[in-house]
Write a structure and sequence with these properties.
Blueprint lengths: L6 E7 L6 H9 L7 E7 L5 H9 L5 E6 L9 H11 L8 E4 L4 E2 L4 H11 L3 E11 L5 E3 L14 E3 H6 L12 H11 L3 E12 L6 H17 L4 H10 L6 H18 L7 H17 L5
Parallel strand pairs: 1-2, 1-4, 2-3, 6-9
Antiparallel strand pairs: 4-8, 5-9, 6-7, 6-8
C-alpha cells in the first residue's frame, strides 16, 4: 500500500501453544508488518506465553499482555481479552485495526493486498480474506459459510474511523457473534463490508467432537435468536445446512435453541435499532430468492 498507512493487530490466546507459533511466523513474514501487535494471553497454562515472549524478544512490534484475573469462561471471554488488547493500543497512531485469531496463517502478501483493497474503496470500513479449512481429504477448502459481504471474526480488519463508529470495542454478547454485530453495525453506519476471495486465510483448529458439534448447534440457535434473526430466514438457512455435518440432527438442535428464546421470553442482546436493520437486510435477501416476473 502506497503511503504505508500503519495497521495494528490484536490476538486473544488461551492455551494456543499448538497453533500460535505458525500465526506469528505468518505475521512476521508479511511484506507490510503491523506497527504493533498485542497478543493477549488469557490465563494460558501451556507454552503460549513462552512462544510469544520468544518472538517479542526479537520483534519489537510484538507485545505480550497477560490476563491473570478471574472472569467467567463463557462466549464473551475472548471478547474481554480482545478489548484488553485494544486498550493497550489507544495511544498508538494507526489507520487500521484488526482482530486476528491465534490459529490463522496466510501468505506474506496478505496484509499488503488487503490494505490495497481499502485504498481503492474509501468507504470500505471492514474487510478481510476468505477462511479456508482442512477437509476430510486433508486439503484446505473454502468454508461453506464464506460470503462476499461478511468478514469472519478471525480476520476482521477495520478502518479506524469505522471501528470507532461501531463503538471502538467488541460487545461481550452472551452467545458470541461479535463479528456479526460489528459488520451489521458498520453497514448501519454507512460503511462497506467485504470479504475477498483472492485473499485466503487458513484456519487450523480441527473440528470438535460430535457432542461438541451438537452443543455448538444449540448455541448457534440461541445466538441467532439473541441478535434478532427472522424466523423464516432461520428456517431456510437450516434447511440449506441439513446436508452439512452434523446434518439433520444439527439443524434440529439449532432450531431448538432458536425457539427456546421465544418460549422462555428471553430478551434480545442487541438494540431495537440493530434488530430492525438486521431484519431489513434479511428481508432483502429473502426477496432476492423470489422469481422475477
Amino acid at each position: 500500500m502506497t503511503g504505508g498507512a500503519p495497521y495494528v493487530l490484536v490476538t486473544a490466546a488461551c492455551n494456543e501453544g499448538r497453533f500460535i507459533e505458525n500465526t506469528i511466523r505468518s505475521v512476521v513474514a508479511q511484506e507490510l508488518r503491523p506497527a504493533r501487535w498485542v497478543i493477549v494471553s488469557d490465563n494460558s497454562n501451556d507454552d503460549t506465553d513462552a512462544i510469544v515472549e520468544r518472538y517479542a524478544a526479537i520483534h519489537d512490534f510484538i507485545q505480550l499482555h497477560r490476563m491473570t484475573e478471574d472472569h467467567p469462561r463463557n462466549f464473551a471471554a475472548q471478547v474481554y481479552a480482545i478489548n484488553a488488547g485494544i486498550a493497550k493500543l489507544r495511544r498508538t497512531d494507526y489507520a487500521f485495526i484488526g482482530n486476528l485469531d491465534a490459529d490463522i496463517t496466510f501468505d506474506s502478501s496478505y496484509f499488503r493486498n488487503l490494505l490495497e483493497k481499502f485504498r481503492h474503496d474509501p468507504r470500505l470500513g471492514l474487510g478481510g480474506g476468505m477462511i479456508y479449512e482442512r477437509s476430510r481429504d486433508g486439503e484446505f477448502r473454502s468454508r461453506k459459510t464464506n460470503r462476499a459481504d461478511s468478514v469472519a471474526h478471525a480476520v476482521q480488519l477495520f478502518r479506524r474511523e469505522c471501528f470507532e463508529a461501531v463503538g471502538g470495542a467488541y460487545p461481550p454478547l452472551p452467545y458470541g457473534a461479535p463479528d456479526t454485530y460489528a459488520e451489521v453495525t458498520a453497514r448501519m453506519k454507512g460503511w462497506h463490508v467485504a470479504s475477498f476471495p483472492d485473499l485466503i486465510a487458513f484456519h487450523h483448529r480441527p473440528t470438535g467432537s460430535a457432542g461438541g458439534l451438537l452443543r455448538g448447534c444449540l448455541r448457534q440457535g440461541r445466538l441467532d435468536f439473541s441478535v434478532g434473526v427472522l424466523p423464516l430466514f432461520e428456517v431456510l438457512r437450516l434447511l440449506r445446512r441439513v446436508w452439512t455435518k452434523p446434518y439433520l440432527i444439527g439443524s434440529m438442535a439449532t432450531l431448538v435453541g432458536f425457539l427456546e428464546g421465544y418460549c422462555l421470553g428471553k430478551p434480545r442482546a442487541v438494540s431495537e435499532r440493530f434488530l430492525n436493520y438486521y431484519r431489513q437486510e434479511q428481508t432483502k435477501r429473502l426477496r432476492s430468492l423470489l422469481p422475477t416476473r
